[in-house]
């Protein structure tokens, strides 16, 4: 629907894409005339070229991989945690249809958040442990991964770049070894950020979408968009997180941890970065929500390990959220099948 119909063509002419060359030509035109998200829209056009069945399968696989990556980042890897990550992803989603089931939205948010989170995790895992086993060949694949993370979208890319830079500075301050891949990955991420933000198409599009409001009114509208994101789009996730923080830190006296603090700061930056955008759609909160989901699962892990009897209460609450997720999916299918008119 919507943008899917346009991206299934060569963009600059009403001819369906039929090859990788068509996708290349389309993305060159897109970068120069419409926007800089070349990686996400290349993924989108590849999905559209592959067909609906392949896209359906890939959507489910990527959703499962992202849920597992949330568990890995939270260092809470079991079936219950995985189901918790899935229900948080759907049940707290400001617009799960547009960020996960609409193919254009899935490419821009669901798909690209996976490499972004993995890139960030590669740095965060060094925060609370001096000796960490490095991934094989990380020096070679960290550069393209960094470019992909930075070139993802306009708010998540800069947020992740700043946080990886902070991790490097923290290690320098603590006089710990700064590995070469950390520096190269951070530089690659910065390059990706520049590529997505400085795309000529962004300026062309901003001129076309220019409004007649004064600067004061524009400031008000952007402040309103930020407030709506905080108190509407992200509110369920933030509410769950705050309740868990009160329980873990206020009641049980558990430490929040450097990793969780960095994830919260990254989420805060990704939310705040949207003040520079004239439009803050609800689906753009997806990446910020995923970062907070990692913190939620990490705190749940700490609480359950400290007080095992609390596990049933926490997972009962998660089951209620799962019911909300199933309701969304059931409603979607019922409308699609014509059961609800």
Can you put this structure into words, describing what you see?
The protein is mainly α and about 350 residues long. The chain has one domain (about 5-335). The chain has helices at about 5, 20-35, 40-50, 50-75, 80-90, 95-100, 105-125, 140-150, 155-175, 180-195, 200-210, 215-235, 235-250, 260-270, 285-305, 310-335. Helix 7 packs across helix 8 (about 140-150), helix 9 packs antiparallel against helix 10 (about 180-195) and helix 9 packs antiparallel against helix 14 (about 260-270). The chain starts with a helix and ends with a helix.
Short summary of the structure?
The protein is mostly helical and 341 residues long. The protein is built from 16 helices and no strands.
